[in-house]
Specification:
Helix content is 82%, strand content 0%. It is mostly helical and 416 residues long. Helix 5 runs antiparallel to helix 18, helix 11 packs across helix 12 and helix 12 runs parallel beside helix 18.
Length: 416
């Protein structure tokens, strides 16, 4: 498509009109498609090995929990070294981890314990990849196109969330888990090999050491976010919402089998519906291309996600559950894109890697905590009532966020 043709798509087209942005987002789509195939494969593998919602939750926890320890450190590292090289090393590690799972499973040597350990490795590598890769975006597009670029980045993730399950379901059903995890390994390898082709401005590619140690820089990142009148409350709200609401999506296999009596096909359909909803919502946010009203929409989207999740777990009708899943994906997409856009806009350039690492910690560690808690409660009380209780608590968090909305609007919706 020509540059003029891309411009017809408004803000999203402007973001994609830049050569390096297209390369960056193409690699993102490739790697994240592999990631979603992998996520479904290992979740289904854990369920087949144990038939326990707890162990499925533990697999998600081991993938996402390293973000608690490593994401803030990774942000400080991303603010002081070559972000392209850091991204390449992290993505190559993820490719090797997926290949190791495939090889061990193919030879009959993979236990649930080894699977948990390898997912910890993947989670650690992902904690370093996220702030390094996301910090490159301001070097790929002009400042005016940054909100659309952030939305496009999230859009790639949600397109992958649709494509990945569409591949994973039939692939696992026909050929098993081994080809699925090897596919992820190839996807991350391909994404890694594209990175040297990016032409990123030196000021955006390489962070500037502060003169302090990594630990001091990490602490400074926490202090900066906590003292910021907009970033601190917004990230706190997003963290609570992620703990309470995202766990459902992390442990879908027990819901698929226990609530709807479905197998891998049902898992793929639900995940694909979440991705479809997220895709269309992401297109809308990307086309919107402005900051005004973003805080209000981010808070309202979290409220909608809680209500749609209650609908999802309150039914035994699979078609209705698919509709709720699509709406869950749409509301989660709107919330996530807008939070990241607001944080990118408001953060000082010298602190961008550290602030984005905190966002990465929220998107990875908080769902892991919620998944583990929900999986544990699901073994004792069933899946429905613990989920409803979590969604009601999330609505209380929405009320808290709404009270703090004026201060967040004042500090987050003004272009730096």
């Amino acid at each position: 498509m020509t540059i003029r043709g891309l411009a017809a798509f408004g803000a999203l087209g402007r973001a994609l009109s830049h050569r390096d942005a297209r390369l960056f987002f193409g690699a993102s789509l490739t790697s994240w498609t592999g990631l979603w195939v992998h996520q479904i494969a290992v979740a289904w593998l854990a369920w087949e090995l144990t038939k326990s919602a707890f162990w499925v939750g533990m697999v998600a926890f081991c993938d996402l929990a390293p973000a608690v320890i490593f994401s803030p450190i990774a942000g400080a590292v991303a603010d002081r070294m070559d972000r392209v090289k850091l991204t390449m090393a992290s993505q190559a590690t993820i490719a090797l981890e997926a290949a190791a799972i495939g090889a061990l499973l193919a030879t009959g040597n993979l236990s649930i314990g080894l699977l948990l350990a390898l997912e910890m490795v993947k989670g650690t590598a992902s904690s370093f990849a996220q702030p390094a890769r996301q910090s490159l975006m301001p070097g790929l597009v002009p400042r005016a196109d940054l909100p659309a670029a952030v939305a496009c980045n999230s859009l790639c993730y949600n397109v992958a969330r649709f494509i990945g399950p569409a591949i994973a379901g039939p692939l696992i059903a026909v050929a098993g888990v081994v080809p699925a995890v090897f596919l992820n390994s190839l996807a991350y390898l391909a994404a890694t090999l594209t990175m040297p082709n990016l032409r990123v401005d030196a000021a955006q590619r390489r962070g500037v050491p502060s003169g302090s140690g990594v630990l001091a820089d990490t602490i400074a990142g926490f202090r900066y976010a906590g003292r910021h009148s907009g970033i601190g409350p917004l990230l706190a709200f997003a963290a609570v919402a992620a703990v309470l609401m995202r766990g459902v999506q992390e442990i879908l296999p027990p819901f698929v089998e226990r609530l709807f009596a479905r197998g891998a096909d049902g898992m793929a359909m639900l995940t694909a519906c979440i991705g479809i909803g997220a895709l269309f919502a992401g297109l809308w946010v990307a086309g919107r291309g402005k900051l005004e009203g973003a805080v209000t929409l981010a808070i309202a989207a979290a409220a909608c996600q809680a209500l749609f999740t209650i609908g999802f777990v309150s039914t035994s009708l699979f078609p209705f559950a698919l509709v709720c899943a699509a709406l869950m994906g749409a509301s989660a997409s709107v919330h996530g894109i807008l939070v990241q856009t607001l944080v990118q806009n408001a953060a000082d350039a010298s602190m961008r890697g550290r602030v984005l690492s905190l966002w990465g910690m929220i998107t990875r560690a908080c769902p892991a905590s919620g998944a583990l808690a929900l999986g544990t409660a699901g073994e004792v009380f069933g899946l429905r009532w613990p989920t409803v209780a979590a969604m009601l608590a999330a609505l209380l968090a929405v009320a808290w966020g709404w009270q703090r909305k004026p201060a967040m609007v004042a500090s987050l919706e003004t272009r730096n």
